[in-house]
């Protein structure tokens, strides 16, 4: 067996991966609050934005940051670009699929469990595809116990993400939960890395796809940092510039009241204010302090 280094650069890489995971979770959860207050295509767009932020930043970029610190003693590690891109697509597609399920089904337990299983398997697969993208003169193997534990953690973490998505409203509660989710998602990655064993091989192989070539981790750093930064900025800007969940709900209620008011029969148009005391909205709500973004 070859000697493995999971923390080549000390605590820098696990700290970075944790921060990235937490940021991705926070951006995604804040986008979901807008989705809950929206309807139809608007809800779908917010859920797609949330899934993209969580998948590309909170899961995929987190895993890549952790892999920067992974090295096999005395060997040069390269990464297959197609497999790396595949891991990004899996991360984004599975968490987005889970969010779409719970986003349109609400707090029902059945869809939540099913979506958590789907997203959890996608989370675990993303981490193992990242490891499968490695190219080195060695053959990857996995400790079956730790392999199973990493999948179980992934399912629990993904279910917790989706549970939070349908329930959290306030900004500080979301921040606190995002910090916890950052730990859970990072735990999936480092448990998968702990399960890795590498035996010597005569040619560069990898877990799934054979063949040498590929790019070094250093050559990926700049594109990944730039891509993750741009994605995070766009997601933050979309959330920051959009109305809050309460404002979206208020606007919808106001428009519904105006629509129903315009449909009243003519004789009711001359009714006094006392006939509309039960209106579903009130100008007093304008004086309520707005929720932080």
List keywords for this structure.
9 helices, two-stranded antiparallel ribbon, 2 domains, about 290 residues, mainly alpha, about 5% strand, about 70% helix
Briefly summarize what is shown.
By secondary structure, this protein is mainly alpha-helical. Helices cover 68% and strands 7% of the residues. It has 2 domains: 4-242, no CATH class; 247-287.
Write the layout of secondary structure elements.
Layout: E1 4-5, H1 12-37, H2 40-68, E2 71-72, E3 78-79, H3 81-105, H4 109-132, E4 134-135, E5 138-142, H5 144-167, H6 171-194, E6 196-200, E7 215-216, H7 217-241, H8 245-262, H9 266-269
Helix pairs in contact: 1-2, 1-5, 1-6, 1-7, 1-8, 2-3, 2-4, 2-6, 2-7, 3-4, 3-5, 4-5, 4-6, 5-6
